[in-house]
Write a structure and sequence with these properties.
This protein is of the alpha+beta class. The chain has one domain: Roll (Ubiquitin-like (UB roll)). The chain contains 2 helices and 5 strands; from the N terminus they run E-H-E-H-E-E-E. Strand 3 and strand 4 form a beta hairpin.
């Protein structure tokens, strides 16, 4: 299945792209997706503990099962001001 991933803020620079299309097996989770992303953009692994992941308009945890066509957002921690 294919999912579209968008990167925000400094994570975009670390990924080297604003978005990626990632092909994953059925029943893949966010954890599986992140591992695939880290293979393509190893610099992102250093931010693994702090990134937030959204599916559509909801934040999701790493056990979230992806669906074909999901639009995933990879963001740094939200900061107030």
């Amino acid at each position: 299945m294919k999912v579209r991933v968008e990167f925000y803020s400094q994570l975009r620079d670390l990924a080297g792209a604003a978005e990626l299309n990632v092909d994953l097996p059925a029943e893949a989770t966010v954890t599986d997706l992140l591992e695939k992303i880290y293979e393509k953009a190893p610099a992102l692994r250093s931010r693994d503990k702090s990134i937030l992941v959204g599916a559509g308009v909801e934040f999701v945890d790493r056990n979230y099962k992806l669906k074909a066509g999901d639009e995933i957002s990879i963001m740094p921690p939200v900061q107030g001001g």
